[in-house]
Amino acid sequence: MSDTPPNDDAAASGDHIGDHSDIDGGLTGSGLEAERARRTARLAELRDNGVEPYPYRFDRTHTLAEIRDEWGELEAGAETEAKVAVAGRMMLRRDSGKLVFGSLRDRSGEIQLFISRAVVGDEAFADVKELDLGDWLGVHGTVMTTRKGELSVKADRIELLAKAVRPMPDKWHGLTDTDTRFRQRYADLIVNADARRAFEIRHATVASFRRTLTDQGFIEVETPVLHVEAGGALARPFTTHHNTLDLDLHLRIALELHLKRLIVGGMERVFEIGRIFRNEGISTRHNPEFTMMELYQAFGDMTDVMAITEELIVNAARDALGTTVIEIQGLQVDLADPWPRARMVDLASEALGVEVHPSQPVEQLRALAEQHGVRWEQRWGGGKLVEELFEASAERSLVRPTFVTGHPTEISPLARVDRTDPWLTERFELFVDGRELANGYSELNDPAEQRARFEDEQAAKDAGDAERGSVDEDYLRALEYGMPPTGGLGIGMDRVAMLLAGVDTIKEVILFPTLRPEVES
RNA sequence: GCGCCUCUAGCUCAAUGGCAGAGCAGUGGACUCUUAAUCCAUUGGUUCUGGGUUCGAAUCCCAGGGGGCGCACCA
Question: Is the Cβ atom of A505 within 7 Å of strand B at any atom?
Fold first, then answer.
Protein backbone atom coordinates (compact mmCIF):
# COMPACT_ATOMS: atom_id res chain seq x y z
CA MET A 1 0.00 0.00 0.00
CA SER A 2 1.11 3.54 -0.57
CA ASP A 3 1.87 6.09 2.07
CA THR A 4 -0.76 8.45 0.73
CA PRO A 5 -3.15 9.70 3.40
CA PRO A 6 -6.58 8.09 2.95
CA ASN A 7 -8.37 11.34 2.25
CA ASP A 8 -5.93 12.80 -0.20
CA ASP A 9 -8.64 13.32 -2.77
CA ALA A 10 -6.54 15.33 -5.18
CA ALA A 11 -3.77 12.76 -5.40
CA ALA A 12 -6.24 9.95 -5.85
CA SER A 13 -8.15 11.70 -8.58
CA GLY A 14 -5.14 12.65 -10.64
CA ASP A 15 -7.19 15.49 -12.01
CA HIS A 16 -5.33 18.75 -12.01
CA ILE A 17 -8.49 20.74 -12.64
CA GLY A 18 -9.97 19.50 -9.41
CA ASP A 19 -6.92 19.89 -7.24
CA HIS A 20 -7.35 23.48 -6.26
CA SER A 21 -11.11 23.68 -6.17
CA ASP A 22 -13.38 24.36 -3.25
CA ILE A 23 -15.56 21.30 -2.81
CA ASP A 24 -18.00 22.96 -0.41
CA GLY A 25 -18.42 25.91 -2.68
CA GLY A 26 -19.49 23.73 -5.58
CA LEU A 27 -22.85 22.55 -4.28
CA THR A 28 -24.78 24.71 -6.66
CA GLY A 29 -24.38 25.05 -10.39
CA SER A 30 -22.86 22.49 -12.69
CA GLY A 31 -19.52 21.53 -14.14
CA LEU A 32 -17.25 18.77 -12.95
CA GLU A 33 -16.58 20.18 -9.50
CA ALA A 34 -20.23 20.82 -8.75
CA GLU A 35 -21.05 17.32 -9.92
CA ARG A 36 -18.41 15.72 -7.73
CA ALA A 37 -19.52 17.85 -4.80
CA ARG A 38 -23.13 16.80 -5.25
CA ARG A 39 -22.26 13.11 -5.43
CA THR A 40 -19.86 13.36 -2.51
CA ALA A 41 -22.55 15.07 -0.46
CA ARG A 42 -24.82 12.13 -1.24
CA LEU A 43 -22.20 9.82 0.28
CA ALA A 44 -22.29 11.74 3.53
CA GLU A 45 -26.07 11.71 3.51
CA LEU A 46 -26.12 7.93 3.12
CA ARG A 47 -23.69 7.49 6.01
CA ASP A 48 -25.85 9.79 8.17
CA ASN A 49 -28.74 7.43 7.45
CA GLY A 50 -26.66 4.45 8.52
CA VAL A 51 -26.04 3.17 4.99
CA GLU A 52 -22.50 2.19 4.03
CA PRO A 53 -22.00 3.42 0.45
CA TYR A 54 -18.93 1.19 -0.01
CA PRO A 55 -19.94 -2.21 1.40
CA TYR A 56 -17.39 -5.02 1.58
CA ARG A 57 -19.00 -7.59 -0.67
CA PHE A 58 -22.03 -8.73 -2.58
CA ASP A 59 -23.01 -12.30 -3.40
CA ARG A 60 -24.52 -12.60 -6.82
CA THR A 61 -26.35 -15.65 -8.09
CA HIS A 62 -25.92 -14.99 -11.81
CA THR A 63 -23.83 -12.99 -14.18
CA LEU A 64 -25.90 -10.98 -16.62
CA ALA A 65 -25.00 -13.33 -19.48
CA GLU A 66 -26.20 -16.25 -17.37
CA ILE A 67 -29.55 -14.50 -16.89
CA ARG A 68 -29.81 -14.04 -20.64
CA ASP A 69 -28.77 -17.63 -21.34
CA GLU A 70 -31.37 -19.01 -18.99
CA TRP A 71 -34.29 -16.68 -19.65
CA GLY A 72 -33.48 -15.09 -23.00
CA GLU A 73 -36.34 -16.88 -24.72
CA LEU A 74 -39.11 -15.68 -22.38
CA GLU A 75 -42.08 -14.27 -24.27
CA ALA A 76 -43.04 -10.64 -23.85
CA GLY A 77 -44.94 -9.73 -20.70
CA ALA A 78 -43.76 -12.77 -18.71
CA GLU A 79 -43.22 -12.84 -14.96
CA THR A 80 -41.19 -15.55 -13.25
CA GLU A 81 -40.71 -16.63 -9.64
CA ALA A 82 -36.96 -16.88 -10.23
CA LYS A 83 -35.13 -14.99 -7.47
CA VAL A 84 -31.78 -13.69 -8.62
CA ALA A 85 -29.04 -11.42 -7.33
CA VAL A 86 -27.01 -9.54 -9.93
CA ALA A 87 -24.32 -6.89 -9.76
CA GLY A 88 -22.99 -4.30 -12.15
CA ARG A 89 -22.62 -0.68 -13.08
CA MET A 90 -25.66 1.45 -13.87
CA MET A 91 -25.02 2.78 -17.37
CA LEU A 92 -28.37 4.33 -18.32
CA ARG A 93 -31.63 5.19 -16.63
CA ARG A 94 -35.05 6.06 -17.92
CA ASP A 95 -37.18 7.62 -15.28
CA SER A 96 -40.91 7.33 -15.83
CA GLY A 97 -42.79 8.58 -12.79
CA LYS A 98 -43.37 5.72 -10.41
CA LEU A 99 -41.31 3.41 -12.59
CA VAL A 100 -37.59 3.56 -13.31
CA PHE A 101 -35.77 1.57 -15.97
CA GLY A 102 -32.04 1.16 -15.62
CA SER A 103 -29.32 -0.52 -17.63
CA LEU A 104 -27.04 -2.63 -15.50
CA ARG A 105 -23.78 -3.84 -16.98
CA ASP A 106 -21.26 -6.40 -15.80
CA ARG A 107 -18.33 -7.97 -17.65
CA SER A 108 -20.58 -10.46 -19.37
CA GLY A 109 -23.33 -8.21 -20.68
CA GLU A 110 -26.16 -5.85 -19.90
CA ILE A 111 -29.62 -6.29 -18.55
CA GLN A 112 -32.49 -3.94 -17.85
CA LEU A 113 -33.57 -3.19 -14.31
CA PHE A 114 -37.29 -2.73 -13.79
CA ILE A 115 -37.84 -0.73 -10.63
CA SER A 116 -41.41 -0.09 -9.54
CA ARG A 117 -42.37 2.09 -6.61
CA ALA A 118 -45.22 -0.31 -5.84
CA VAL A 119 -42.69 -3.14 -5.44
CA VAL A 120 -39.79 -1.54 -3.60
CA GLY A 121 -41.77 0.89 -1.44
CA ASP A 122 -41.72 4.68 -1.22
CA GLU A 123 -38.51 5.00 0.77
CA ALA A 124 -36.40 2.68 -1.36
CA PHE A 125 -37.85 4.28 -4.48
CA ALA A 126 -36.73 7.69 -3.26
CA ASP A 127 -33.23 6.23 -2.81
CA VAL A 128 -33.29 4.96 -6.39
CA LYS A 129 -33.93 8.51 -7.55
CA GLU A 130 -30.68 9.50 -5.82
CA LEU A 131 -28.59 6.96 -7.73
CA ASP A 132 -26.23 8.28 -10.37
CA LEU A 133 -25.04 6.92 -13.67
CA GLY A 134 -21.85 5.02 -13.02
CA ASP A 135 -22.83 3.75 -9.57
CA TRP A 136 -22.16 0.07 -8.91
CA LEU A 137 -25.29 -1.75 -7.76
CA GLY A 138 -26.22 -5.10 -6.33
CA VAL A 139 -29.83 -5.99 -7.16
CA HIS A 140 -32.08 -8.65 -5.70
CA GLY A 141 -35.16 -9.35 -7.74
CA THR A 142 -37.04 -11.63 -10.08
CA VAL A 143 -36.63 -12.27 -13.78
CA MET A 144 -39.32 -10.85 -16.06
CA THR A 145 -39.88 -9.41 -19.50
CA THR A 146 -41.60 -6.13 -20.29
CA ARG A 147 -44.60 -5.80 -22.55
CA LYS A 148 -42.23 -5.12 -25.42
CA GLY A 149 -40.24 -8.21 -24.51
CA GLU A 150 -37.14 -6.69 -22.91
CA LEU A 151 -35.58 -9.17 -20.49
CA SER A 152 -35.36 -7.46 -17.11
CA VAL A 153 -34.68 -7.99 -13.46
CA LYS A 154 -37.59 -6.64 -11.44
CA ALA A 155 -35.93 -5.24 -8.37
CA ASP A 156 -37.06 -6.11 -4.87
CA ARG A 157 -34.05 -4.53 -3.19
CA ILE A 158 -31.18 -2.44 -4.49
CA GLU A 159 -27.88 -2.11 -2.71
CA LEU A 160 -25.30 0.53 -3.56
CA LEU A 161 -21.97 -1.31 -3.96
CA ALA A 162 -19.83 1.71 -4.79
CA LYS A 163 -20.66 5.32 -5.47
CA ALA A 164 -19.27 6.97 -8.59
CA VAL A 165 -18.44 10.51 -7.58
CA ARG A 166 -17.18 11.42 -11.03
CA PRO A 167 -19.58 11.58 -13.99
CA MET A 168 -19.35 9.07 -16.82
CA PRO A 169 -18.31 10.25 -20.29
CA ASP A 170 -21.00 10.77 -22.92
CA LYS A 171 -23.41 7.85 -22.81
CA TRP A 172 -23.78 7.68 -26.58
CA HIS A 173 -20.53 8.95 -28.08
CA GLY A 174 -18.22 7.61 -25.39
CA LEU A 175 -14.70 9.03 -25.29
CA THR A 176 -13.06 9.90 -28.59
CA ASP A 177 -10.08 11.98 -27.56
CA THR A 178 -7.24 9.50 -27.95
CA ASP A 179 -5.13 11.13 -25.27
CA THR A 180 -7.89 10.80 -22.68
CA ARG A 181 -8.74 7.29 -23.83
CA PHE A 182 -5.19 6.05 -23.26
CA ARG A 183 -4.48 8.02 -20.10
CA GLN A 184 -7.82 7.16 -18.51
CA ARG A 185 -8.11 3.64 -19.87
CA TYR A 186 -10.59 2.86 -17.09
CA ALA A 187 -12.99 5.41 -18.54
CA ASP A 188 -12.33 4.17 -22.07
CA LEU A 189 -13.19 0.62 -21.02
CA ILE A 190 -16.38 1.78 -19.32
CA VAL A 191 -17.79 3.53 -22.36
CA ASN A 192 -16.15 2.09 -25.48
CA ALA A 193 -17.21 -1.40 -26.45
CA ASP A 194 -14.54 -1.49 -29.17
CA ALA A 195 -11.85 -0.97 -26.58
CA ARG A 196 -13.20 -3.82 -24.46
CA ARG A 197 -13.35 -6.03 -27.54
CA ALA A 198 -9.72 -5.40 -28.48
CA PHE A 199 -8.55 -6.56 -25.07
CA GLU A 200 -10.82 -9.59 -25.12
CA ILE A 201 -9.18 -10.55 -28.40
CA ARG A 202 -5.76 -9.99 -26.94
CA HIS A 203 -6.59 -12.20 -23.99
CA ALA A 204 -8.00 -14.92 -26.24
CA THR A 205 -4.88 -14.76 -28.41
CA VAL A 206 -2.49 -15.19 -25.50
CA ALA A 207 -4.61 -17.97 -24.00
CA SER A 208 -4.73 -19.70 -27.37
CA PHE A 209 -0.94 -19.56 -27.75
CA ARG A 210 -0.52 -21.16 -24.33
CA ARG A 211 -2.98 -23.92 -25.20
CA THR A 212 -1.37 -24.69 -28.57
CA LEU A 213 2.12 -24.83 -27.08
CA THR A 214 1.15 -26.83 -24.01
CA ASP A 215 -0.58 -29.35 -26.26
CA GLN A 216 2.69 -29.81 -28.14
CA GLY A 217 4.75 -30.47 -25.05
CA PHE A 218 6.24 -27.01 -24.55
CA ILE A 219 7.00 -25.94 -21.00
CA GLU A 220 6.32 -22.35 -19.97
CA VAL A 221 9.20 -20.72 -18.12
CA GLU A 222 10.11 -17.33 -16.71
CA THR A 223 13.60 -15.90 -17.17
CA PRO A 224 15.19 -12.73 -15.80
CA VAL A 225 14.10 -9.29 -16.91
CA LEU A 226 17.21 -7.70 -15.41
CA HIS A 227 20.27 -8.45 -17.50
CA VAL A 228 23.86 -7.48 -17.03
CA GLU A 229 24.17 -7.28 -20.83
CA ALA A 230 21.02 -7.03 -22.93
CA GLY A 231 21.42 -9.47 -25.80
CA GLY A 232 19.43 -11.56 -28.19
CA ALA A 233 18.37 -8.75 -30.48
CA LEU A 234 19.66 -5.56 -32.01
CA ALA A 235 18.18 -2.72 -29.98
CA ARG A 236 19.07 -0.06 -27.46
CA PRO A 237 18.26 -1.13 -23.91
CA PHE A 238 16.97 0.69 -20.84
CA THR A 239 19.44 0.97 -18.00
CA THR A 240 18.68 0.64 -14.32
CA HIS A 241 20.67 0.12 -11.15
CA HIS A 242 20.67 -2.36 -8.30
CA ASN A 243 21.59 -0.62 -5.07
CA THR A 244 22.99 -3.33 -2.80
CA LEU A 245 24.92 -4.98 -5.61
CA ASP A 246 25.90 -1.50 -6.82
CA LEU A 247 25.39 -2.83 -10.31
CA ASP A 248 24.12 -1.26 -13.51
CA LEU A 249 21.58 -3.55 -15.16
CA HIS A 250 19.68 -3.52 -18.43
CA LEU A 251 16.07 -4.43 -18.99
CA ARG A 252 15.89 -7.32 -21.43
CA ILE A 253 15.46 -6.66 -25.14
CA ALA A 254 14.75 -10.31 -25.96
CA LEU A 255 14.10 -13.62 -24.25
CA GLU A 256 16.37 -15.61 -26.50
CA LEU A 257 19.64 -16.21 -24.71
CA HIS A 258 18.17 -17.46 -21.45
CA LEU A 259 15.72 -19.75 -23.19
CA LYS A 260 18.48 -21.36 -25.23
CA ARG A 261 20.44 -21.96 -22.02
CA LEU A 262 17.44 -24.06 -21.00
CA ILE A 263 17.72 -26.08 -24.21
CA VAL A 264 21.33 -26.73 -23.22
CA GLY A 265 19.95 -27.84 -19.87
CA GLY A 266 17.85 -30.45 -21.61
CA MET A 267 14.38 -28.92 -21.29
CA GLU A 268 13.85 -29.66 -25.03
CA ARG A 269 10.76 -27.51 -25.60
CA VAL A 270 10.38 -24.23 -23.74
CA PHE A 271 8.49 -20.99 -24.25
CA GLU A 272 8.05 -17.70 -22.48
CA ILE A 273 5.47 -14.97 -22.97
CA GLY A 274 7.13 -11.95 -21.47
CA ARG A 275 7.54 -8.23 -21.46
CA ILE A 276 10.60 -6.85 -23.16
CA PHE A 277 11.87 -3.29 -23.31
CA ARG A 278 13.53 -1.35 -26.09
CA ASN A 279 14.68 2.19 -25.64
CA GLU A 280 13.64 3.36 -29.07
CA GLY A 281 11.00 5.39 -30.83
CA ILE A 282 7.28 5.27 -30.18
CA SER A 283 4.94 4.87 -33.13
CA THR A 284 1.71 3.21 -34.19
CA ARG A 285 3.69 -0.04 -34.28
CA HIS A 286 6.11 0.44 -31.37
CA ASN A 287 5.71 0.79 -27.63
CA PRO A 288 8.82 0.89 -25.41
CA GLU A 289 7.59 -2.15 -23.51
CA PHE A 290 5.87 -4.91 -25.41
CA THR A 291 5.17 -8.60 -25.17
CA MET A 292 7.06 -11.33 -26.97
CA MET A 293 6.43 -15.02 -27.14
CA GLU A 294 9.60 -16.94 -27.78
CA LEU A 295 9.91 -20.70 -28.07
CA TYR A 296 12.77 -23.13 -28.66
CA GLN A 297 12.42 -26.68 -29.85
CA ALA A 298 15.30 -29.13 -29.61
CA PHE A 299 16.08 -31.38 -32.59
CA GLY A 300 14.20 -29.08 -34.94
CA ASP A 301 15.23 -26.39 -37.35
CA MET A 302 13.68 -23.36 -39.00
CA THR A 303 11.11 -25.39 -40.93
CA ASP A 304 9.62 -26.81 -37.73
CA VAL A 305 9.12 -23.42 -36.17
CA MET A 306 7.63 -22.03 -39.39
CA ALA A 307 4.98 -24.71 -39.13
CA ILE A 308 4.36 -23.81 -35.48
CA THR A 309 4.06 -20.14 -36.39
CA GLU A 310 1.23 -20.88 -38.81
CA GLU A 311 -0.48 -23.13 -36.33
CA LEU A 312 -0.25 -20.62 -33.48
CA ILE A 313 -1.72 -17.77 -35.46
CA VAL A 314 -4.43 -19.79 -37.19
CA ASN A 315 -5.51 -21.29 -33.86
CA ALA A 316 -5.49 -17.86 -32.25
CA ALA A 317 -7.76 -16.48 -34.98
CA ARG A 318 -10.16 -19.37 -34.48
CA ASP A 319 -10.13 -19.00 -30.70
CA ALA A 320 -10.36 -15.21 -30.62
CA LEU A 321 -12.62 -14.56 -33.61
CA GLY A 322 -14.25 -17.88 -34.42
CA THR A 323 -12.95 -17.60 -37.98
CA THR A 324 -9.67 -17.67 -39.84
CA VAL A 325 -10.88 -15.14 -42.39
CA ILE A 326 -9.87 -11.59 -41.59
CA GLU A 327 -9.78 -8.33 -43.47
CA ILE A 328 -6.42 -6.69 -44.11
CA GLN A 329 -6.36 -3.42 -46.02
CA GLY A 330 -9.78 -4.22 -47.43
CA LEU A 331 -8.61 -7.65 -48.57
CA GLN A 332 -10.34 -10.83 -47.38
CA VAL A 333 -7.53 -13.10 -46.20
CA ASP A 334 -7.97 -16.66 -45.01
CA LEU A 335 -5.12 -17.22 -42.60
CA ALA A 336 -5.64 -20.96 -42.94
CA ASP A 337 -4.43 -20.87 -46.56
CA PRO A 338 -0.76 -21.88 -46.85
CA TRP A 339 1.57 -18.92 -46.44
CA PRO A 340 3.95 -18.20 -49.32
CA ARG A 341 7.69 -18.36 -48.67
CA ALA A 342 10.34 -16.36 -50.48
CA ARG A 343 13.96 -15.49 -49.92
CA MET A 344 14.75 -11.91 -48.94
CA VAL A 345 17.32 -11.61 -51.74
CA ASP A 346 14.79 -12.83 -54.32
CA LEU A 347 12.05 -10.47 -53.14
CA ALA A 348 14.45 -7.55 -53.18
CA SER A 349 15.86 -8.53 -56.57
CA GLU A 350 12.39 -8.80 -58.02
CA ALA A 351 11.23 -5.49 -56.59
CA LEU A 352 14.37 -3.68 -57.73
CA GLY A 353 14.67 -5.39 -61.10
CA VAL A 354 18.34 -6.10 -60.37
CA GLU A 355 19.97 -9.06 -58.68
CA VAL A 356 21.04 -8.30 -55.12
CA HIS A 357 23.02 -10.53 -52.81
CA PRO A 358 25.30 -9.79 -49.84
CA SER A 359 28.23 -11.33 -51.72
CA GLN A 360 28.18 -8.46 -54.20
CA PRO A 361 30.79 -5.69 -53.85
CA VAL A 362 29.66 -3.19 -51.22
CA GLU A 363 30.08 -0.29 -53.66
CA GLN A 364 27.55 -1.85 -56.01
CA LEU A 365 24.97 -2.24 -53.24
CA ARG A 366 25.60 1.30 -52.01
CA ALA A 367 25.00 2.61 -55.50
CA LEU A 368 21.75 0.68 -55.64
CA ALA A 369 20.77 2.15 -52.28
CA GLU A 370 21.46 5.68 -53.51
CA GLN A 371 19.46 4.96 -56.62
CA HIS A 372 16.42 3.99 -54.51
CA GLY A 373 16.69 6.73 -51.94
CA VAL A 374 17.97 4.47 -49.16
CA ARG A 375 20.29 6.25 -46.76
CA TRP A 376 23.27 4.07 -45.92
CA GLU A 377 26.10 4.25 -43.43
CA GLN A 378 29.78 3.62 -43.93
CA ARG A 379 29.92 0.79 -41.41
CA TRP A 380 27.23 -1.27 -43.13
CA GLY A 381 28.31 -4.37 -44.98
CA GLY A 382 26.58 -6.04 -47.88
CA GLY A 383 24.17 -7.93 -45.61
CA LYS A 384 22.82 -4.83 -43.93
CA LEU A 385 22.51 -3.10 -47.30
CA VAL A 386 20.50 -6.00 -48.71
CA GLU A 387 18.14 -5.85 -45.75
CA GLU A 388 17.69 -2.11 -46.18
CA LEU A 389 17.02 -2.55 -49.88
CA PHE A 390 14.46 -5.23 -49.11
CA GLU A 391 12.71 -3.03 -46.54
CA ALA A 392 12.61 -0.09 -48.88
CA SER A 393 11.41 -2.00 -51.92
CA ALA A 394 9.41 -5.09 -51.01
CA GLU A 395 8.42 -5.11 -47.34
CA ARG A 396 5.39 -2.85 -47.58
CA SER A 397 3.79 -4.95 -50.30
CA LEU A 398 3.64 -8.07 -48.11
CA VAL A 399 0.01 -7.77 -47.09
CA ARG A 400 -0.97 -11.42 -46.97
CA PRO A 401 1.00 -13.55 -44.49
CA THR A 402 4.38 -14.23 -46.10
CA PHE A 403 7.51 -15.91 -44.80
CA VAL A 404 10.62 -14.04 -45.83
CA THR A 405 13.68 -16.28 -45.50
CA GLY A 406 17.43 -16.27 -45.86
CA HIS A 407 18.46 -13.14 -43.98
CA PRO A 408 22.10 -12.16 -44.47
CA THR A 409 24.53 -13.55 -41.92
CA GLU A 410 25.77 -10.05 -41.09
CA ILE A 411 22.44 -9.06 -39.51
CA SER A 412 21.73 -12.45 -37.87
CA PRO A 413 24.40 -13.11 -35.26
CA LEU A 414 22.49 -15.91 -33.52
CA ALA A 415 21.21 -17.76 -36.57
CA ARG A 416 22.82 -20.70 -38.25
CA VAL A 417 24.38 -20.22 -41.66
CA ASP A 418 22.32 -21.49 -44.59
CA ARG A 419 23.45 -24.98 -45.48
CA THR A 420 23.70 -23.95 -49.16
CA ASP A 421 24.84 -20.29 -49.01
CA PRO A 422 27.39 -19.00 -46.47
CA TRP A 423 26.27 -15.38 -46.96
CA LEU A 424 22.78 -16.15 -45.73
CA THR A 425 21.27 -17.76 -42.65
CA GLU A 426 18.46 -20.22 -42.04
CA ARG A 427 16.21 -17.51 -40.78
CA PHE A 428 12.72 -16.27 -41.55
CA GLU A 429 10.49 -13.40 -40.68
CA LEU A 430 6.72 -13.42 -41.02
CA PHE A 431 5.22 -10.32 -42.57
CA VAL A 432 1.52 -9.47 -42.53
CA ASP A 433 0.02 -6.13 -43.50
CA GLY A 434 3.53 -4.84 -44.21
CA ARG A 435 4.52 -5.43 -40.60
CA GLU A 436 6.92 -7.95 -39.12
CA LEU A 437 5.06 -10.31 -36.81
CA ALA A 438 7.49 -13.14 -36.19
CA ASN A 439 11.14 -14.01 -36.49
CA GLY A 440 12.73 -17.43 -36.24
CA TYR A 441 15.71 -19.50 -37.23
CA SER A 442 17.78 -22.58 -37.01
CA GLU A 443 19.79 -21.72 -33.92
CA LEU A 444 23.54 -21.37 -34.09
CA ASN A 445 24.93 -23.91 -31.62
CA ASP A 446 28.66 -24.02 -32.49
CA PRO A 447 30.36 -22.18 -29.61
CA ALA A 448 33.41 -21.24 -31.64
CA GLU A 449 31.38 -19.70 -34.43
CA GLN A 450 29.10 -18.00 -31.94
CA ARG A 451 32.12 -16.44 -30.28
CA ALA A 452 33.34 -15.11 -33.60
CA ARG A 453 29.91 -13.63 -34.35
CA PHE A 454 29.72 -12.04 -30.89
CA GLU A 455 33.15 -10.52 -31.45
CA ASP A 456 31.93 -8.98 -34.70
CA GLU A 457 28.99 -7.51 -32.77
CA GLN A 458 31.26 -6.17 -30.06
CA ALA A 459 33.50 -4.57 -32.66
CA ALA A 460 30.50 -2.86 -34.28
CA LYS A 461 29.28 -1.64 -30.89
CA ASP A 462 32.74 -0.34 -30.01
CA ALA A 463 32.74 1.45 -33.34
CA GLY A 464 29.68 3.39 -32.19
CA ASP A 465 26.62 1.33 -33.16
CA ALA A 466 24.67 1.32 -29.87
CA GLU A 467 22.22 -1.30 -31.03
CA ARG A 468 24.79 -3.98 -31.63
CA GLY A 469 25.54 -6.75 -29.17
CA SER A 470 28.44 -7.83 -27.09
CA VAL A 471 30.18 -11.04 -26.08
CA ASP A 472 28.08 -13.02 -23.61
CA GLU A 473 30.64 -15.29 -21.96
CA ASP A 474 28.12 -17.21 -19.89
CA TYR A 475 26.06 -17.96 -22.99
CA LEU A 476 29.19 -19.22 -24.74
CA ARG A 477 29.98 -21.40 -21.73
CA ALA A 478 26.49 -22.86 -22.00
CA LEU A 479 26.98 -23.62 -25.69
CA GLU A 480 30.23 -25.36 -24.82
CA TYR A 481 28.21 -27.86 -22.79
CA GLY A 482 26.46 -28.64 -26.07
CA MET A 483 23.16 -27.37 -27.44
CA PRO A 484 21.28 -29.82 -29.63
CA PRO A 485 20.05 -28.70 -33.05
CA THR A 486 17.29 -26.25 -32.25
CA GLY A 487 14.61 -24.22 -33.97
CA GLY A 488 13.70 -20.91 -32.34
CA LEU A 489 10.83 -18.48 -32.80
CA GLY A 490 9.78 -15.07 -31.54
CA ILE A 491 6.33 -13.59 -32.10
CA GLY A 492 5.25 -10.06 -31.21
CA MET A 493 2.06 -10.67 -29.28
CA ASP A 494 0.93 -7.06 -29.52
CA ARG A 495 1.11 -7.21 -33.29
CA VAL A 496 -0.79 -10.47 -33.47
CA ALA A 497 -3.45 -8.87 -31.27
CA MET A 498 -3.50 -5.85 -33.60
CA LEU A 499 -3.96 -8.09 -36.61
CA LEU A 500 -6.80 -10.07 -35.09
CA ALA A 501 -8.49 -7.07 -33.50
CA GLY A 502 -8.26 -5.20 -36.80
CA VAL A 503 -6.77 -2.06 -35.23
CA ASP A 504 -4.05 0.08 -36.75
CA THR A 505 -2.19 1.27 -33.68
CA ILE A 506 -0.43 -0.74 -31.01
CA LYS A 507 -1.90 1.53 -28.32
CA GLU A 508 -5.27 -0.08 -28.96
CA VAL A 509 -3.97 -3.43 -27.70
CA ILE A 510 -1.82 -2.18 -24.81
CA LEU A 511 -3.93 -1.29 -21.80
CA PHE A 512 -1.61 1.43 -20.54
CA PRO A 513 0.66 2.53 -23.38
CA THR A 514 3.70 4.65 -22.61
CA LEU A 515 2.80 8.36 -22.66
CA ARG A 516 4.39 11.51 -21.39
CA PRO A 517 3.28 12.20 -17.82
CA GLU A 518 0.22 14.37 -17.48
CA VAL A 519 1.26 17.97 -16.82
CA GLU A 520 -0.08 20.30 -14.14
CA SER A 521 -1.52 23.29 -15.90
C1' G B 1 14.69 14.42 -33.24
C1' C B 2 12.16 16.87 -37.98
C1' G B 3 7.45 18.05 -40.79
C1' C B 4 2.06 18.42 -40.94
C1' C B 5 -2.55 18.42 -38.15
C1' U B 6 -5.13 19.14 -33.56
C1' C B 7 -6.70 21.12 -28.39
C1' U B 8 -13.85 25.16 -27.00
C1' A B 9 -18.66 23.11 -20.68
C1' G B 10 -17.79 16.60 -17.19
C1' C B 11 -18.50 14.07 -22.43
C1' U B 12 -19.59 14.69 -27.95
C1' C B 13 -19.36 18.77 -31.06
C1' A B 14 -20.77 24.07 -33.33
C1' A B 15 -19.31 29.13 -33.69
C1' U B 16 -13.97 30.65 -39.94
C1' G B 17 -12.10 38.76 -36.91
C1' G B 18 -18.01 41.14 -34.28
C1' C B 19 -22.75 39.12 -27.80
C1' A B 20 -19.01 31.72 -26.80
C1' G B 21 -23.62 27.95 -28.46
C1' A B 22 -26.11 22.89 -29.00
C1' G B 23 -26.92 17.64 -27.62
C1' C B 24 -25.85 14.38 -23.63
C1' A B 25 -24.71 14.42 -18.40
C1' G B 26 -26.38 17.59 -13.99
C1' U B 27 -30.45 20.43 -11.37
C1' G B 28 -36.14 21.43 -10.68
C1' G B 29 -40.85 19.60 -12.52
C1' A B 30 -44.53 15.83 -15.36
C1' C B 31 -45.14 10.65 -16.50
C1' U B 32 -46.24 2.68 -14.15
C1' C B 33 -43.63 -0.39 -20.11
C1' U B 34 -39.13 2.88 -21.13
C1' U B 35 -34.85 1.18 -23.88
C1' A B 36 -29.70 6.96 -26.86
C1' A B 37 -37.16 7.26 -23.30
C1' U B 38 -40.07 11.72 -23.96
C1' C B 39 -41.92 16.70 -22.52
C1' C B 40 -41.28 21.70 -19.79
C1' A B 41 -37.74 24.76 -17.22
C1' U B 42 -32.65 25.51 -15.92
C1' U B 43 -27.16 25.67 -13.97
C1' G B 44 -22.46 25.25 -15.97
C1' G B 45 -16.64 28.47 -19.83
C1' U B 46 -8.85 30.31 -17.72
C1' U B 47 -11.91 28.58 -25.73
C1' C B 48 -4.44 24.17 -23.46
C1' U B 49 -0.71 28.19 -21.44
C1' G B 50 1.99 32.87 -22.13
C1' G B 51 2.90 36.88 -25.28
C1' G B 52 1.60 39.86 -29.75
C1' U B 53 -1.47 42.17 -33.92
C1' U B 54 -6.37 44.59 -33.87
C1' C B 55 -11.42 49.29 -32.08
C1' G B 56 -12.46 44.04 -31.23
C1' A B 57 -9.25 37.31 -31.04
C1' A B 58 -11.86 30.66 -29.82
C1' U B 59 -10.62 32.51 -34.79
C1' C B 60 -4.67 35.84 -37.21
C1' C B 61 0.91 35.83 -35.64
C1' C B 62 5.04 34.15 -32.17
C1' A B 63 6.74 30.97 -28.19
C1' G B 64 5.64 26.88 -25.00
C1' G B 65 2.72 22.29 -23.47
C1' G B 66 -0.35 17.71 -24.55
C1' G B 67 -1.98 14.44 -28.33
C1' G B 68 -2.39 12.38 -33.39
C1' C B 69 -0.30 11.26 -38.21
C1' G B 70 4.04 10.94 -41.41
C1' C B 71 9.49 10.54 -41.61
C1' A B 72 13.69 8.50 -38.88
C1' C B 73 14.83 4.25 -35.47
C1' C B 74 12.95 -0.47 -34.57
C1' A B 75 9.57 -5.45 -33.55
Answer: yes
